[in-house]
Write a structure and sequence with these properties.
Layout: H1 2-20, H2 25-28, E1 54-62, E2 68-77, E3 82-86, H3 93-99, E4 108-113, E5 116-117, H4 123-128, E6 130-133, E7 142-143, H5 144-149, H6 157-166, H7 170-174, E8 183-184, H8 193-207, E9 211-215, H9 223-237, E10 241-245, H10 249-254, E11 257-262, E12 265-270, H11 272-276, H12 282-285
Parallel strand pairs: 3-10, 3-11, 6-9, 9-10
Antiparallel strand pairs: 1-2, 1-4, 4-5, 7-8, 11-12
Helix pairs in contact: 6-8, 8-9
The chain binds adenosine-5'-triphosphate.
Keywords: ATP-binding, Membrane, Nucleotide-binding, Transmembrane, Transmembrane helix
Main location: membrane
Subcellular location: Cell membrane
């Protein structure tokens, strides 16, 4: 049991380091238990999740004094379904995702989860229901086991292994010299991009949260890794409310809903079939979606 405290302790230390340094914000998102910056309403209730549906209502947002990067966003990400955000670079996709765990608060409008304004609930309860998988998974100094446990500090070894199996990571982990006790991070073994992705997915799986925020990798992995990562993601997405910043055509095609963003607004919304039929639409003209890799098993 003592082992469970170690990541929690490191988390506290890491938090201090991060507060002192300007870091890549996307790295922090993976550790959703970090000290929140926004204030909580006094007497805020815990979020009560039923379907885990997410709704944006008239959301605008600006980073500090800068120009608005979200100019009125309205959509529903239905519970248990996958909503894909697509659009040109700078359209505001990452910003939309960032608002869900309240790394920032909207300038106006509101975000509801199962009808509750997320500004009115405790931040700990909000973030407990959310897991995040980033494009560039961050590995902390420590063992593979520790790195998965960051998803949920009180996870047992058995739960960590189960998550790793589901994330198609168990085999490469046990092939390492010290298995789950193999050190990673700057002073540890070097893992491939696909292996890092799968550890990050295991971290999300061990969290077992109903909402999964996913920033799909843009950089190509080798075909074998790609297929393993895809299978791991399918496991993680299953039965959850997923909001994915999608870069792969295969992900977009499978999504229950596609939100096409352009310059801080929603340009189009629909399924792949409905959007692809509008030849003059932005979706039909998007050329930054990558085709599925050849052996994509989907
Ligand atoms: P990409 O696909 O390139 O990640 P995106 O659609 O996710 O793009 P965002 O990252 O949400 O777009 O960015 C929207 C706008 O907000 C851009 O103009 C970007 O420069 C700006 N922006 C993003 N993060 C910050 C920040 N931390 N501070 C100031 N401006 C930011």
């Amino acid at each position: 049991l003592l082992m469970a405290y170690e990541p929690a302790k490191r988390l506290a230390k890491l938090q201090v380091q991060m507060e002192r340094a300007v870091v890549n914000a996307r790295m922090i998102y993976e550790i959703l238990d970090m000290q929140p910056h926004q204030r909580e309403k006094p007497g805020a209730a815990d979020l009560a999740v039923t379907d885990a549906s997410i709704e944006f209502r008239g959301v605008t947002f600006a980073y500090g004094e800068n120009e608005k990067v979200l100019k009125g966003i309205d959509f529903v990400a239905e519970g248990g379904k996958t909503t894909a955000l697509v659009g040109p670079s700078g359209a505001g996709k990452s910003t939309v995702v960032t608002l869900i765990p309240r790394f920032y608060d909207p300038s106006s409008g509101e975000i509801l989860i199962d009808g509750q304004n997320i500004a009115d609930v405790t931040k700990a309860s909000l973030r407990r229901h959310i897991a995040y998988v980033s494009q560039q998974p961050y590995l902390f100094e420590g063992t593979i086991r520790d790195n998965i446990r960051y998803g949920r500090p009180d996870a047992t070894d058995a739960e960590i292994e189960d998550a790793a199996r589901l994330a198609y990571a168990h085999d490469f982990i046990t092939a390492q010299p010290l298995g789950y006790d193999t050190p990673v991070g700057e002073n540890g073994v070097t893992l491939s991009g696909g292996q890092r992705q799968r550890l990050s997915i295991a971290r999300a799986l061990v969290r077992n949260a109903p909402i999964l925020l996913l920033d799909e990798a843009t950089s190509a992995l080798d075909t074998e890794s790609e297929a393993a990562v895809q299978k791991a993601l399918d496991q993680a997405m299953h039965g959850r409310t997923v909001v994915v910043i999608a870069h792969r055509l295969s992900t977009v095609i499978k999504a229950n809903k596609i939100i096409v963003m352009h310059e801080g607004r929603i340009a189009e919304e629909g399924t792949h079939e409905s959007l692809a039929q509008r030849p003059d639409g932005l979706y039909a003209r998007l050329n930054n979606l990558q085709p599925a890799p050849q052996n994509d098993l989907s």
